[in-house]
């Protein structure tokens, strides 16, 4: 019988959180909306883009990533990672997002194959999505250009993403669904690169894989986008690279 993970999390904000974990008990979660609000403010000066209505999606991604990595889980399969991340996302997700995006979401059941996260697979996901043709071309070009900047300073990556987001917001030919999917994906990308570039104490590398997974999840809803991006990213960063 699979051993249940558990975590007793006491969150205190002095630029960091304190986590206390026990793997022999039932899961105990004590969401603290005050701490959630405080956490959202940590990245604002560097990574945020308030013009993107889906900016909070990127923030919750790195918040949940911190929870998971700080707990030092010993999961060895993508299914185990997915189960844990789903629990955290479903517990904190709607409280964190609040009224800014969507309410009462739950994570979908899809899991991206971690060994099928190539650029060609990304192109297939975009081509088969519900995006309009113009939006497909735009998003594909954005992601291709974004990964040409991986060696640049974060400020340059941030400026590039924000500029693209502004063009999407102002594009009258994109429908609401185009904008939701693209701006959710760009928010996840912007904060993921922030996590990699600015938090060197964390073992994290942004890849086509977790961006692709985030996009695939965004085709369903916001929380599935967070879940998919994290599961694929964690698997590649803590399992495949070990």
Can you walk me through this structure?
The chain is built from 10 helices and 2 strands; from the N terminus they run E-E-H-H-H-H-H-H-H-H-H-H. The chain has a two-stranded antiparallel sheet. It is 59% helix and 3% strand. It is mainly alpha-helical and 242 residues long. Helix 3 (55-70) packs across helix 8 (176-198). The longest helix has 23 residues, at 176-198. It is globular and about 45 Å long.
- In terms of DSSP E residues, the strand content is under 5%
User: Distance between the terminal alpha carbons, to the nearest Å?
Assistant: 26 Å
Helix run count: 10
Mean pLDDT: 76
Which structural class best describes the helix and strand composition?
mainly alpha
H-E order: EEHHHHHHHHHH
Largest sheet: 2 strands, antiparallel
| Rg calc | 17 Å
User: Low-confidence parts lasting 5 or more residues at pLDDT below 50?
Assistant: 1-33, 99-105
Helix content class: 55-70%
Total E-strand runs: 2
Strand order in the sheet with the most strands? 1-2
User: How would you describe the shape?
Assistant: globular
Give the helix/strand layout.
Elements: E1 7-10, E2 18-21, H1 33-42, H2 44-47, H3 55-70, H4 78-97, H5 119-127, H6 133-146, H7 154-169, H8 176-198, H9 208-218, H10 222-240
Antiparallel strand pairs: 1-2
Summarize the structure.
By secondary structure, the protein is mainly alpha-helical. Helices cover 59% and strands 3% of the residues. It has helices at residues 33-42, 44-47, 55-70, 78-97, 119-127, 133-146, 154-169, 176-198, 208-218, 222-240, and strands at residues 7-10, 18-21.
């Amino acid at each position: 019988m699979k051993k249940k993970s558990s975590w007793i999390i006491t969150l205190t904000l002095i630029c960091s959180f304190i986590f206390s974990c026990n793997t022999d008990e039932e899961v105990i979660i004590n969401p603290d909306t005050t701490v959630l609000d405080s956490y959202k403010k940590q990245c604002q000066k560097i990574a945020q883009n308030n013009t993107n209505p889906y900016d909070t999606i990127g923030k919750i991604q790195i918040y949940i990533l911190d929870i998971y990595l700080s707990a030092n889980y010993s999961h060895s399969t993508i299914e185990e990672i997915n189960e844990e991340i789903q629990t955290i996302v479903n517990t904190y997700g709607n409280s964190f997002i609040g009224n800014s995006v969507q309410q009462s979401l739950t994570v979908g059941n899809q899991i991206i194959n971690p060994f099928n996260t190539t650029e060609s697979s990304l192109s297939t996901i975009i081509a088969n999505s519900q995006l309009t043709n113009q939006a497909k071309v735009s998003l594909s070009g954005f992601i291709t250009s974004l990964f040409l900047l991986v060696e640049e300073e974060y400020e340059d990556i941030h400026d590039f993403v924000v500029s693209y987001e502004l063009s999407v917001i102002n594009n009258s030919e994109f429908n609401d669904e185009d904008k939701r999917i693209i701006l959710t994906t760009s928010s996840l990308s912007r904060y993921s690169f922030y996590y990699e570039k600015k938090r060197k104490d964390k073992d994290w590398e942004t890849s086509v894989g977790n961006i692709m997974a985030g996009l695939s999840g965004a085709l369903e809803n916001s929380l599935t986008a967070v879940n998919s991006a994290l599961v694929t990213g964690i698997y590649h960063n803590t399992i495949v690279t070990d």
